[in-house]
Amino acid sequence: MINNEFIDSLIEIANLKGIDQEIIFESLESSLISAYKKNYGTSQNAKVTINKETGETHVYAQKKVVEDVYDNLLEISLEDAKAVNLTYELDDVVDVEVNPREFGRVAAQNARQRVIQEIKEAERDVIYKELVEKENDIITGIVQKKEKQNILVDIGRLETFLTPTEQMPNEVYKHGDILKFYVVEVKKTSKGPNISISRTHPGIIKRLFEMEVPEIFDGTVEIKSIAREAGSRTKIAVYSKDENVDATGACVGPSGMRVQSIVSELKGEKIDIVKWSKEPAEFIANALSPSKVVSVKINEDEKSAKVVVPDYQLSLAIGKEGQNARLSAKLTGWKIDIKSESQAAAIEEEVDIIPSGDIVEDTVIEENTVEISTDAIEGEDA
To answer: What sections of the protein cross the membrane (predicted)?
Structure first.
């Protein structure tokens, strides 16, 4: 009923798609049973056996051995059962072979459709299992084409879209470009696995450093936090558990090779590697790199910090359009107010706190009046 070439084709398809052969044969057997029942219009129990080497197929109607037969489709007498095999006893199940030629064409069509469907389902499951293990990891994909604002990417077993929000603003995606993508999420749907990929997610920075820096991969150096404005600049805070290992140096690599490899993958995105510290003031000062910091005063309750930098470093500390300050705040989790030394000095001199009840020009300063500019006081006529 099923020739050897058909069996060989099924096995080859299963191997190519990474599908368990048992799934294919179980599907084939199930489809033949379904065809048998459909052909005979019965709910009779049936069994199919397929020789995986030769393709030889046998279909059996399964009947229970009883003393008195009331349903010929489901039951068989003890006498008739012993005619098949003398070992049968009451309540045993006898397999009575059915001539498959009587429904061969129906069975073949049904089997073909069922097996094709099962192969598709099995392949989807295999792909999903492969991809779900890649969630929060990096995969390599090949850019195919642009469809409206989406970029179609071939990631091996399937294709997916890189949506506009996940595209780097400074990147131009061309057919054939080979890029690394961060797997944000993998969902199982009726149409197969749905995978969301990104070039802007901060997670891609973490995984690229884990791939490039052995000390991060083995746990000697730890990434504490990442702040990123994709396509422009990233700040990454690192810490070494080993006092003898320089965390920032390990990430930069010999002659900057490690970090440069990541910068190249991200098409020139700037990366600042700073040393993490459990002391907030020190961590904030490090985060504002490459700017120098004179002092940091922190307010634990408000989780804010007032930072003073040299006058000539103010623009560097704040960064273009406030980027350096903004990324530093994201990296540390603290609100940061940056002043130059001259600005800080001017603020300190600008305000005097005058105690309640003091008299200035014969005027009593009432309670709750807290600040009077010294410049204003000195400028009045005595």
So the answer is: none
